[in-house]
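Quick question, first post here. What does this chain look like in 3D?
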Amino acid sequence: MVKTSSVSVRTRGQFDIINITDEIRGITDNSGVSNGIVNVFCAGSTGAITTIEYEPGLKADIKDYFGKMFPRGEFYQHHETWGDDNGSGHLLSALIKTSFTVPIVNKRLTLGTWQQIVFIECDTRSRSRDLIVQIVGDC
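> Answer (accepted):
Ran it through. Tokens below.
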């Protein structure tokens, strides 16, 4: 069985981190799938999905350290192509990735105790995103 749904998020710009665990858990719980996988995908090249311990210190660390790796004010060749300023966001998204997959075992997401699924905005401006949630598995 394959079930597809979506989660909408509105971001405030680069390094906005949104906990989407409850939404994904709700979709999974209502899917009827006993064992399988759920994949969360951002259709865009300046968004990222991963897992973290969603707490203020780590959220600040992500902003600080990824900001040092891909400084926003630097020159990126991408800026010459489209005349925009989000080259750092494309590199960040490429590093973290635009999708994440979690196993479903006995009707439950197999997340660790302190592990939450998050969307990280990598673009330099606020965005509205529709994240695709696809579940594949047995009923």
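The CA atoms of residues 76 and 87 lie 5 Å apart.
Strands lie at 2-10, 17-19, 35-42, 47-52, 99-105, 108-109, 116-121, 128-138.
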